[in-house]
Specification:
The strands form two sheets. Strands 3-4-9-6-8-7 form a six-stranded mixed β-barrel. A two-stranded antiparallel ribbon has the order 2-10. By secondary structure, the protein is of the alpha+beta class. It has 19 helices and 13 strands.
Length: 577
């Protein structure tokens, strides 16, 4: 049974009865579009509808199945059986096509869900951050990278299954990919190649950006205060306002502060001939001493280096002093403390002035000769908390000066903001030719030259690569245009044939566009997953790549299709002949 002959017979019989498609559809309880498909040969009625259809058209069931009028009232039994068998076969084929269409729709729905998940994950990756997503230990899907790849593979398999069904069943409405298997495969491969190239391009930008972000960790900028000519890093007079600003600055980390005092055991000295015999070093961390770690110290029970950050009257003594005086851990000693004073800010001469008698608890002892101090400084005998000494100066209403200050710039990408803050503190650059030979700690020394050169180079590379990004997108549009134009050039007669059958230019365009869209989505998803497996950069960059390739390629594809649609129907058919 021929579908076209069957449809023509229904149309002619309907017109003879003076029925419209809508009226016939209402009589059969179907839609008018269904009747239109029967008459155009695009569909076949269910076998249960054959007898009601014959009644509505006032023809015999045999005439309906043979699609022609039968003049003789008697028919051969074998002819009737053959007609019935043909009708049943056509009906079963129509049902099979419906099932296949539902399978294709189900697979494409799975592809859409998987694609939506990939896009959602990529957007979330960009806003939330990859590290936070990777550290999500309670996630039901485990490692997000692995799950992302598996989701992409599922999309590819579902899309491949849908395309396989379309290839094997060329009569499915409006989609005839199976006729052009080689062109379809070339389209998918081209999309995969474009995705891989763009992913490589974006990965290059992302990697340079990541290197720029990690540069403060890889190339930390160390800073310290010094005198004007840079000859001294310790034994300075660093103003209290500078110390306070460094402690509160968001641009400063790992701050190491020291203050140097002298002392004697017991009460203050009397008489000019007596001199101090102990050196005290106030520090805010063991790192400020250098050369000594927490494991090098013999601690009293329950004590550690955290006391150096507080204001408690505790101390660490040298091993030599500890054994010489027969002290014990936890024992308390009284120190008469002296600080360094000068007549004015320009002189380099200092003298000792009494500060305060303070009783300290011994919480540990070690060999303080391992301390890495400036060559002009003597090794300390006792180590005290920096802020405790600072508090003592405040209590005695004496101007406080720190002895040295070292630190790292917290975020070297904000180096200019840091320098501006230091400039507001009246800190100046080190000048070896400076005529200021005082002990003022008012100069800032930075080892930022390597960092600045590296950061400038990375920023320059990123800016240059980003400048070419619009041209890359235009190139993808051109690739989509040229590839589509070349691959579909041989199908111009097919387009002309569809136009000659009464399909409008827009509907014909939509048929071919949908066919290309399925191929492009398959190629993009496959290329994205392949790029993730090959190059990494899970999440945002791969999803962004797929979206950009899809939009730009389909734009070029649409332009090429629209140009092919403008061809004259008669010209295309003539060239085909």
């Amino acid at each position: 049974m021929d579908n076209m002959a069957f449809g023509k017979f229904i149309r002619d019989s309907r017109k003879e009865k003076g029925l419209t498609q809508r009226q016939l559809a209402q009589m059969l309880h179907v839609s008018d579009k269904t009747v239109s498909k029967w008459e155009n040969g695009a569909g076949f009625p269910d076998i249960k509808l054959l007898e009601p259809l014959a009644v509505c058209l006032e023809v015999s069931l045999l005439e309906l199945m043979q699609s022609e009028r039968v003049k003789e009232t008697k028919i051969d039994r074998s002819d009737a059986e053959q007609a019935v068998a043909a009708s049943i076969s056509r009906s079963e084929q129509a049902e099979e096509r419906k099932r296949l269409i539902w399978k294709v729709k189900l697979l494409l729905s799975a592809c859409a869900c998987g694609t939506f998940y990939l896009i959602w994950t990529g957007v979330r990756y960009l806003y939330v951050g990859g590290e936070k997503m990777r550290v999500n230990e309670g996630a039901w899907y485990g490692d997000p990278v692995t799950f992302y790849v598996w989701a992409g593979l599922l999309v590819i398999l579902c899309g491949a299954a849908a395309i396989y069904i379309l290839w094997k069943n060329e009569r499915l409405n409006d989609v005839k990919i199976g006729r052009h298997k080689v062109k379809g495969a070339l389209t998918i491969l081209m999309d995969m190649l474009v995705v891989l190239l763009l992913h490589t391009y974006l990965s290059g930008i992302a990697n340079n950006q990541e290197q720029l972000t990690r540069l403060p960790e890889l190339l930390p900028v160390h800073a310290f205060l010094t005198c004007a000519d840079g000859s001294m890093q310790a034994g300075l007079f660093i103003r209290e306002e500078v110390v306070e600003s460094l402690l509160s600055s968001e641009y400063v980390k790992n701050l190491e502060l020291t203050v140097r005092l002298e002392a004697v055991l017991g009460e203050f000295l009397s008489g000019e001939e007596k001199k101090t015999d102990l050196y005290l070093e106030g520090v805010n961390s063991l790192d400020a001493l250098g050369g000594i770690t927490e494991t090098d110290i013999v601690w009293n029970t329950g004590e550690d280096q955290t006391f150096l950050q507080g204001t408690e009257a505790k101390c660490i003594v040298s091993e030599e002093l500890f054994e010489k005086n027969g002290w014990k851990l936890g024992e308390k000693i009284t120190l008469a403390q002296y600080y360094y004073e000068r007549e004015d800010e320009k002189t380099i001469w200092t003298y000792m002035v009494p500060l305060e008698e303070t009783t300290y608890e011994i919480v540990g002892y070690t060999d303080l000769k391992n301390v890495d101090l400036d060559i002009y400084m003597a090794y300390p005998d006792i180590v005290l908390p920096f802020h405790m000494i600072r508090k003592t100066f405040f209590r005695q209403e004496i101007p406080f000066f720190a002895d040295s200050a070292r630190f790292d710039v917290a975020n070297t990408l904000e180096l200019n903001e840091f320098k501006q803050e230091m400039k507001e503190l009246s800190l100046k650059n080190v000048s070896p030719l400076s005529e200021d030979h005082s002990l003022n700690g008012d100069a800032l020394s930075l080892n930022d030259s390597v960092f600045i050169n590296t950061a400038t180079h990375l920023r320059r590379v990123i800016d240059v690569v980003r400048a070419f990004f619009p041209f890359v997108l235009v190139l993808i549009v051109c690739v989509g245009y040229l590839v589509t134009l070349l691959l579909l050039q041989s199908r111009r007669n097919e387009m002309a044939l569809l136009r000659s059958l009464g399909l409008g230019r827009w509907k014909c365009f939509r048929i071919f566009f949908n066919e290309q869209l399925i191929l492009v989505i398959t190629g993009i998803v496959a290329g994205s997953v392949f790029s993730v497996l090959l190059q990494g950069n899970y999440g945002g960059s791969s999803v962004l790549t797929g979206c950009l390739v899809g939009v730009c390629y389909m734009l070029g594809n649409g332009l090429a299709l629209w140009k092919l649609m403008k061809v004259s129907v008669m010209e295309a058919l003539f060239q085909a002949d």
